[in-house]
């Protein structure tokens, strides 16, 4: 692809599940206002949503009902062999379900009063395979997890995902966020999410340190 060619990505397909018709309407307006998103439909529960979609499978479902809706979605979308990523809006962040495995491969857990921009960024993030958690929820999850693997020196670290390794390699090549986003066909915000995850896993405080630690641990070669 030449530098003069533009990449036109299909909008991310978003559906909404919310008990309140006002909440459904508000989320629909939010999705329809963003050209990178396409609204598929909404309903008060998962089963009704599937009937409403008539076979279409969204990339992301935004819901404000109980998190066990994810199990219903997995069952109801089983025939399509696809489970949408989830953006969960909940004020019940003290419940034990937060300590269980995330209800989808990619999930965002936000407060019900999250800002519209936060919801949009979270939709983009989970569509890219990321998880989005508030600092309080993240701290709770980390407190209940097993220690990560350790290096030969005894210092703990976590493995990077394939996409994170791609981003790290581009950092090593001196690429900026916008160029990384262009080459990977993702948004600038998604690049920032990847960088944040990379820095956290490697224990790096800046881009140069991340590259050095990535080389030292064998994730990249330059």
From TrEMBL:
The GO terms describing molecular function are: DNA binding
Sorted alphabetically, which SMART domains does this protein's record hold? HTH_LUXR
Q: In what residue span(s) does the Response regulatory domain sit?
A: 13-127
Q: Which residues carry this modification: 4-aspartylphosphate?
A: 64
Record PROSITE patterns: HTH_LUXR_1, HTH_LUXR_2, RESPONSE_REGULATORY
Q: Which Gene3D superfamilies match?
A: 3.40.50.2300
Organism domain of life: Bacteria
What Pfam families does the database record attribute to this sequence?
A: GerE
Biological processes per GO annotation: phosphorelay signal transduction system; regulation of DNA-templated transcription
Family annotation (CDD domains)? LuxR_C_like (cd06170)
Residue ranges occupied by any HTH luxR-type domain in the UniProt entry: 153-218
* Sorted UniProt keywords: DNA-binding, Phosphoprotein
Name by which UniProt lists this protein: DNA-binding response regulator
